[in-house]
Amino acid sequence: MGGVARRDVVRAAVLGAGSAALAACGSPLDPRGAGADGEVALTVATNAVSGGKNADEADWITRWVVPRFERRKRAEGTPVRVRFAPSGVDDEQYKTKLALDLKAHAGPDVMALDGIWVGEFAQARYIRPLREVAGERAVDWAGWAQIDPKVRSLARFEGKLYGIPAGTDARLLFFHRPLFRRAGLPADWQPRSWAEVLAAARRLKRLDGVTPLQINAGTAMGEATTMQGVLPLLTGAGGRISDGERWYGDTRELRAVLGFYRDVYGAGLGDPRLQQEAKGRDKSFERFATGRLGILAEGDYFWRDVIAPKTGTAPMKGRDDEVGYALFPARAPGAGLGGRDHVSLSGGAVHVLNPHTRHPRKAFALLAALHSAAALRARLGDSAMITERDDVNDAVLDRDPMLRFAADKALPVTTFRPGLAAYPAVSLALQEATAAVVAGRSPAAAAAAYRSALKEVLDGDDRIIG
Amino acid sequence: MSTPAHGSALRADQDRAAAPHEAPGGASEGRRAVLRLLRGVGAYVLVALVLAFFALPLLWLAAAPFDRNPGITASLPEFTLRNFERLWHSTDAVHSLASSLVLAVGSAVLVVGCSALAAYALSRVRIRGRDGILYALLLLSSIVTGTAAMVPVFLLAAGLNLVDSYLGVILVLTGGLLPAAIFILKDFMDTTPRSYEESARVFGASPLRVLKDVVVPVVRPGLATVGVWTVAQVWGNFLIPFLLLRSPDKSPAAVVMYTFYTEGGQPDLALISTFSLLYSLPVVLMFLFVSRRYGFRFHGGIKG
Amino acid sequence: MATTASSAEPAPPDGTPPGGPPEQDAAGLGRRGAALFVVPALVLVALFLVLPAVWTLYLGSTDYRLTGIPAVDPSFVGTDNLTRALGDSGFLRSLWLTLLFVLGSAVIGQAGLGFALAWWMRERTGWLKTTLEALVMLAWILPSSVVAFLWIAFLDRDGGTLNALLHTPGAAWLLDHPMLSIVVYNIWRGTAFSMMLYSAALGNVPASHLETARLAGANGWQLLRDVVLPCVRGHVLTNLLLISLWTFNDFTPFLITAGGPDGASEILPVHIYKTALGNGELGYGAALSFLMLLINLVVAVIYLRLLGRGRRARRRPAADVPAPRGPGAGDAPGRPDDPGEATA
């Protein structure tokens, strides 16, 4: 490559069209070349790696999905070789790598994105609506009938579907039943308002060595603060974070949320140190598992993966009896967004196709293979989680009453985060607002500071409401 | 800690330095002896503290991998080798160490070779603005090794067809490490004596030969230092190999180290501590080897 | 004898290292030869360092992002990013913390402890020296991700090793003293380099000078100030320049405190990482990198000024020391071992 070409690369990339110049260059970047004997090669990537992060997902893809898919294609006379590209790193790092690959018009044919990245990837033209990439077969796919419209919205941006959602989850309040018993609280606790949550926490506070309530706050908890704390509370107060491209600033609802934080941390109902520690979230899990934390706001994966009796990272042998769960209450009955009594928050991954895949038809077949009922059942084995498919959920969720509860009660009242590029910075500003309140600032001052942080993030006032 | 404090604790030169001025008289003699003793004890207490300071944080690495249920705390392990077994079976940990080795050795050879040539030339021939340029490069290297440069670095590698190749990682890392390596090497090439070079030249040796046969032996400990420094830098670097490599079997240990987390981002301490130990061993062995073989000085003096 | 070559030629009093002026072309390289020697490094540096660095600096004048609309269509914003940074309290705080971090851990900590260790070790052998040296080096060569875990384990508030030793259960070092923690960590991490550099430098101080000064009745401090420092001035400068730059760019504290609590240990590399990778604001992140470069430049100029003045001030006392009588005068007893041979 001569100097001219390189200068073109520089100029093009700087001007934002670097991908076009690069597309001409890269075969090593592009692992999608033909395999031996002209057989088609496909790559699938998720943030999972055998023996590490999300190991069972990686093992499922390499040992179940891929061999069956390859066998079927061979039988059909169109052999395909599928390679799994594992990652298993921080989500931001995984996202960066995918974005760079897609920018260079390379990367895997099928890949998993976090649902909230769909919008920013679409805006950057890294991904395209499924129908444009795979054609009508994507619309006609039989599986859609099994996927709830609400779950489908994970993969939707500006009215268009960009991929197939890969399961979802819900946020709930988990509580430690033995501690509740000692505090004289009911074992089937189901709070109907924030006041009832605070009242239970006050009772728990009388127990020695027990942190009553863990509502994540501060920047050290990262996205867990926004997802498990601010946003469920905000929807519970009837508020929203954004409307289309515009973001809500210093609103009454936000002040109410921050007021709740003040009530929790100002009155010693939560441990403010835990919110500051780099490993604070792990510690909150450990405390809950060892009976030193009363109420914990977490996603259902806490139940599935953290305190699972055998496989958890903080296993609780008596989980099924000792751990209770309840819906997040609205601030007061009927005060939640859209007049809801209870709220939840959901996320989940989405599998999308690379818009530059050389084999869109086969890539879609692989995508569909990842979402067949049989594949999902194989993925779960005898465990359970909320998948994207109703038929699978009907069969597997009865194995676990907690997940049945989450799917039946929490999903109908749940909301999703907006998938816009500004979201991570907005989320950080929300985390900083909670940190300020935990550190003793007034909710009004913290909300005002959030408003000015928002102005900086969005570069002006014109995309801020309130 | 107190017994070795006599005499040997004090350096002989201090005794000697004091000798010509010593006033006659027992009292003064006695006070000096006490003072000397105190200073000796003090020096050893300080050394002991420093020793503890450097040793204590390392305890976890020695204990946790052998613990049945390792926590974040260093404690006497409930001894087991199960963690090693698990690591051996469940990951391509061993493979990743081989990748790290390729990257580290490749970069070290390139960095040491290029920087020795350049440092020697810069040291012996006057070039206007040389030091300024060198420092400017050093400053730029701080940008390239930071996160903000990742898009240019990636697009550059992509443009040169260097993505998913060891060579790409090696070249990018070498580019970032060279200025500091030249900076270090030039500094002490400046201070090595010229007389041997001159005599070698009188016998008609070419500059390359002079460098190889006369200069390199003199600066060998310095080259070793730069080599070890390069290996340590590459061994620990996560961002560049992560961005530039794609095939899982090429992932170096620094990248694999980051994968021992669960869905919720919790570290798997058993795997992490065990892998940490395996991951650290090669650099430790290299250090021991190099320091035995070449010494660890910037100038060790001329041998033989 | 190892040092004969250098101690035979007494160093000029202004501290120019022995061996004559550096520009002396002893090998007969010539300009063309020198250029050939420099070419491999030059090509690599131009292509893989200068090009991406300049490119990054250019990105710093745009609103470029990794994702979202500006990823396709970034616009040129000129110096907006720089003015935004200078008005951003988060950046300014992070800058202040970085300066504290560099001053505390590198300039005072690493350089100070490194020099002390080098001084203590310079004429010593034996297991104590070997052990100490090995431990200090170990701290330097272990991979940062491993080291980060070691320090988390060491400082953890629920029964970390330090709390167990001090009998201070529950003391949250990383929360109550985050900056102190990462400063101490970085001293631990980086002292080896200064130690090695100063060991080398001290080995270069002509033994005859030391001997003469001792005979003239100089005490330890005077010896350091008047004989040793003038000889190692260049090394001090190199050392400070390098460790300051490295400390400025050190990202490992992120792995220990994640910049927390609430940004109390968010030094610049961490701030830039969060901006560029966390928020995806690559243009702004690049502008911050550029500011960091400028600050490093200022720091370097300060070092040059300080050490330059130091040379003039110290010229006189050093010249007062009587000229050495010859290489044999005090060489043998003062140098029981040669460092190069001791480790061989």
UniProtKB/TrEMBL annotation, chain A:
InterPro entries: Bact_solute-bd_prot1, SBP, TAT_signal. Coiled coil: none annotated. This is Sugar ABC transporter substrate-binding protein. Residues 1-23 form the signal peptide. The keyword Signal applies. The keyword Flavoprotein does not apply. Keywords: Signal. Pfam families: SBP_bac_1.
Automatic annotation (TrEMBL), chain B:
Keywords: Cell membrane, Membrane, Transmembrane, Transmembrane helix, Transport. It is found in: Cell membrane. Pfam families: BPD_transp_1. The chain crosses the membrane at residues 41-63, 97-122, 134-160, 166-185, 222-244, 269-290. Residues 1-27 are annotated as: Disordered. InterPro entries: BP-dep_ABC_trans_perm, MetI-like, MetI-like_sf. One of its GO terms (biological process) is transmembrane transport. CDD domains: TM_PBP2. One of its GO terms (cellular component) is plasma membrane. It is a multi-pass membrane protein. It comes from the Bacteria. Belongs to the binding-protein-dependent transport system permease family. This is ABC transmembrane type-1 domain-containing protein. It comes from Streptomyces cacaoi. The lineage of its organism: Bacteria, Bacillati, Actinomycetota, Actinomycetes, Kitasatosporales.
TrEMBL record, chain C:
GO terms for biological process: transmembrane transport. Keywords: Cell membrane, Membrane, Transmembrane, Transmembrane helix, Transport. Gene3D superfamilies: MetI-like. Residues 10-21 have a biased composition (Pro residues). One of its GO terms (cellular component) is plasma membrane. Residues 91-303 form the ABC transmembrane type-1 domain. Pfam families: BPD_transp_1. It is a multi-pass membrane protein. Residues 1-26, 315-344 are annotated as: Disordered. SUPFAM superfamilies: MetI-like. The chain crosses the membrane at residues 34-58, 95-120, 132-154, 166-188, 227-248, 282-306. It is found in: Cell membrane. The keyword Repeat does not apply. Belongs to the binding-protein-dependent transport system permease family. PANTHER family: BLR7065 PROTEIN, SPERMIDINE_PUTRESCINE TRANSPORT SYSTEM PERMEASE PROTEIN. This is Amino acid ABC transporter permease.
